[in-house]
Design goal:
Residues 194-350 form the Glycosyl transferase family domain. Pfam families: Glyco_transf_4, Glycos_transf_1. It comes from Dokdonia ponticola. Residues 11-179 form the Glycosyltransferase subfamily 4-like N-terminal domain. This is N-acetyl-alpha-D-glucosaminyl L-malate synthase BshA. The chain starts with a strand and ends with a helix. The protein has 2 domains: 2-175 and 356-373, Glycogen Phosphorylase B (Rossmann fold, 3-Layer(aba) Sandwich), CATH 3.40.50.2000; 179-355, Rossmann fold, CATH 3.40.50. The protein has 13 helices and 13 strands. Helix 3 packs across helix 5. 49% of the residues are buried. 41% of the residues lie in helices and 17% in strands. The protein is α/β, with parallel strands linked by helices and 375 residues long. Strands 3-2-1-4-5-6-7 form a 7-stranded parallel sheet, with helices on both faces. A 6-stranded parallel sheet has the order 10-9-8-11-12-13, sandwiched between helices. The structure holds ligand GMT. Ligand GMT binds at residues 12-14, 17, 121-123, 126, 151, 174, 206, 208, 210, 281-286.
């Protein structure tokens, strides 16, 4: 099949999933065309089956806001015609499903019918899309999609609760490549980050409010009072400065390292002992899954789809949002002896295997095939 993928090319989970999906589809023989404003961060090499088309928005002074949806839908029309695309797969409802629908309608005028698959990732539904400003456009774009998928059962429930949806929603969970992280966990160069007797605790995110960065710091503060530990903070975002300030106030600057954005997540997770994800909302929690595949147990909130990934008492522990004391206690419970930590590490990788790319990508292929038959 020839598949056009529209996504955000940044470090966010939706862009990562869309990119990894495209790469996996190309390896399975499909021709994949990424259409976005920048080459996706995880898309290293292009080849005869992976193409990248940049959406340019001409900077015209008359426009106060440059019309990205217009540029994207026009670009989609050109790409779909030129490359005879079979399926349009858009990740994130706004504005991608909206622009995709416009492209579909323009093509219909020329007798070209391209089915659109829309994958909902979370923030487009729970945080941004449900705002009254956007709600009608989001409902409309979802209802006009030929196939709608959500990355967790929880997100499906939220979508049906928050919007007026007439479409069936298929749950296709996010995935990871078990083989790609099949490295030797003893050869992780952890001595670069911590002393031998210290546990390494990691948090990775875009440091937005929804991630509750202050909780990460507070949980770590309590843990390091009980056992020797270091905290690695990976990512960039608006909450970073306040977090650094809090670390200073607590007098733990020598134990916390802010590493910024990284393309070497697996290397960092390889020497991590515990992952913290205390988010306010999380449709899936791809970062938790990436930790688990690297044998890192997860201490998280029980928000949204996280319980579908992090299994309480098995791969880590779940607490109510904001319950720092419970999170710290659970973290200490896992970290305080090697045997318990080993059990949680093994469980984390074993449970992550359920989300192996080889199990999940065929689910998308089946949906593509089904919609093409009914075209
Ligand atoms: O979490 C973010 O801030 C990024 C966001 C995105 O839109 O890329 O992530 C969402 O999609 C990911 C991939 O499906 C999910 O793993 C995240 O849980 C989800 N984030 C939220 O729901 C807050």
């Amino acid at each position: 099949m020839k598949i056009a993928i529209v996504c955000y090319p940044t470090f966010g989970g939706s862009g990562v999933v869309a990119t990894e999906l495209g790469i996996a589809l190309s390896k399975r023989g499909h021709e994949v065309h990424f259409v976005t404003y920048k080459q996706p961060v995880r898309l290293a090499l292009l080849n005869e089956r992976i193409h990248f088309h940049e959406v340019n928005v001409p900077d015209y002074p008359l426009f106060h806001y440059q019309p990205y949806e217009l540029a994207l839908s026009s670009k989609l029309v050109r790409i779909i015609k030129k490359h005879k695309i079979d399926i349009l797969h858009v990740h994130y409802a706004i504005p991608h499903a909206y622009a995709g629908y416009m492209a579909k309608e323009m093509l219909k005028e020329e007798g070209i019918h391209v089915p659109m698959v829309t994958t909902l990732h979370g923030t487009d539904i729970t945080l941004v899309g449900s705002h009254p400003f956007y709600r009608p456009a989001v409902s409309f774009s979802i209802n006009k999609s030929d196939v709608v998928t959500s990355v967790s059962e929880s997100l499906k429930t939220d979508t049906l609760r928050l919007f007026d949806i007439s479409r069936h929603i298929d749950v296709v969970p996010n995935f990871i490549d078990m083989e790609a992280t099949n490295h030797e966990f003893t050869d992780c160069q952890r001595d670069l980050m911590a002393h031998e007797n210290e546990r390494i605790i990691t948090h990775i995110s875009n440091f937005r409010k929804v991630k509750r960065i202050q909780d990460v710091i507070e949980v770590f503060y309590r843990v390091q009072l009980e056992l020797p530990a270091k905290l690695l903070m990976v990512g960039e975002g608006p909450e970073r400065e306040d977090a650094e300030q809090r670390v200073k106030e607590l007098g733990i600057e020598d134990k916390v390292r802010f590493l910024g954005n990284s393309n070497e997540i697996d290397k960092i997770l390889c020497f991590s002992d515990l992952f913290l994800l205390p988010s306010e909302a999380e449709s899936f929690g791809l970062a938790a899954l990436e930790a688990m595949v690297n044998e890192v147990p997860v201490i998280s909130s029980n928000a949204g789809g996280i319980p579908e990934v992090n299994i309480d008492g098995v791969t880590g522990y779940l607490s109510n949002v904001g319950n720092i004391a419970d999170m710290a206690q659970n973290a200490i419970r896992i970290l305080h002896d090697d045997k318990t930590l080993r059990t949680f590490k093994d469980n984390a990788r074993r449970e992550a295997a359920k989300f192996d790319i080889h199990n999940i990508v065929p689910l998308y292929e089946e949906l593509y095939e089904k919609v093409l038959v009914n075209k």
